[in-house]
Amino acid sequence: MRQEDIAKLARVSRTTVSRVLNGDNTVKKEIREKVLKIVEEVKYERNYISSTLASKKKKNIYAFIVRSIVPYYNEEIKKGLIKFENEFKNFGINLYIIENDINNPEEQLESLKKVLEKNEVAGVIITPLLKEKVSSLILENENVKFITMDSYLSPRIPYVGANYFNSGEISGNIADGILRKYEKALVLKFPDDKVSANRYYQGFINSLEEEQLIISFEKKEIFSKENFLSDKISKDVKVIFTNRFLKEVIENNIDFLRENKDIKIIGIAGNPELNKYLSSGMLFASLNEQYSMISYTSGLLIFNLLYKNIFPDLITLIPANILFKSSIL
Q: Looking at the predicted structure, is the pLDDT value of residue 130 above 90?
């Protein structure tokens, strides 16, 4: 349905329809109401591409993403942003992706400050690291539209991300379905990654009883020892859960896991390289977050803010894919 079609139905000119849609109050009340009634009946939505190109106003959007220890995460986040950019390039959008090290939050803060000082920023998508300082910058730049991605910042700022706690709970529920009475789950807890790891851990332990859990606090240095799980597994341990370094845990313990096939590994993956371990049964279940969908959705929401003036839900959660051996065969 075009404006010309609405004009014919209302028996007015296309210019009159355009004036009504643009909020021109000089149009007579009865004509305005007639046009708006038809617009509602036909569920008309303005052609935003045409109106944007006609205005010739380009909008600069900056996406601040973090380089994680898992390259796949970063690649998927960029993939979603690039998909958004390609689909909406005719709108006059300029998308700039700025990468910062997850372990250098000050670098991200300084990059954000420099961008905001340019006074030519329409929107910002950001995975905030120094949350209080980023919040202060957002308050100081009320003319810029912000979306936080994959790291919740404030109830005032729209957020798009995974439900890490829920993914941890799902992992725990899977483990609970495996464990018999007196059997336990070994949780390998590595240091938090400032975005997701601790929420996964909290969700997992929330799903099990305290007596079902053995928490083992680890550091990356443990990978210097082959088959280190042999020192941690007692006869009552039947499940292993890790929310970081899943690939390294499996590959460092190949021999041990082959000899102990009754032990089920449940982990947070997101890395397609791990599918071979699902196929072989060495990995029992994997929760894969849809990172490219998170970043793509972030792009869509900031587009709606900038071009349609539609304020999104404050929290948009993208569910994880749950994979078992049967999922990939």
A: yes
